[in-house]
Design brief:
The chain is mainly beta and about 170 residues long. About 10% of the residues lie in helices and about 40% in strands.
């Protein structure tokens, strides 16, 4: 195990904590579908990253991560952000909240850098056929882009005793 893997695990855990606090864990409140009707109980397993996740290398070269522009889209609803440096965790972060919630973490303690982007989705609102796009624009003009024109989600059971819902996700 390398020193970087412990760092990556720590910031992934911090990102997961932030995401679950935004979308809330298991609870008795009803979710609202795009048509406005209640569709049941919001329940996201505590160790779940439902939605779309990109986790992998990012070659930033000599670019300042503060100048990256990250754009995430689901079904043509898009959001974009830049990153800030989290001195306590020693990595770069980005947060977008609604209408598309996105959590981003970038560690630059290795080459290439390591990027984690989670386009958050409530399991009950995700449907096969959803369309995703993720792009990271570097100041040099280089672009990392990932697309899924028609998602087929994986369903994973988790061992959260307070939530029996599946984690519904896809990897970008």
């Amino acid at each position: 195990m390398t020193a970087g893997s412990g760092t990556q695990r720590r910031w992934r855990t911090a990102l997961l904590f932030w995401v679950t606090s935004i979308v809330s864990s298991c609870g008795a409140s009803g979710a609202v579908s795009p048509s406005g009707t209640a569709i049941g109980v919001i329940c996201v397993p505590s160790d779940c990253l439902s939605g779309a996740v990109y986790e992998g290398p990012l070659f930033v070269g000599s670019s300042d991560p503060l100048h990256l522009i990250i754009t995430a889209c689901r079904n043509e609803v898009c959001a974009k952000t830049t990153l800030t440096f989290d001195a306590a965790e020693r990595h770069y972060v980005g947060h977008i909240v609604g209408p598309l919630t996105v959590a981003i973490a970038l560690t630059t303690d290795s080459t290439p850098a390591h990027l984690l982007v989670h386009i958050v989705g409530r399991p009950e609102l995700l449907s096969d056929g959803d369309r995703y796009e993720l792009s990271v624009a570097l100041p040099s003009g280089q672009l990392l882009s990932r697309q899924i024109p028609s998602a087929t989600y994986g369903h994973t059971r988790h061992s959260d005793p307070n939530c029996t819902a599946d984690c519904v996700s896809i990897t970008l």
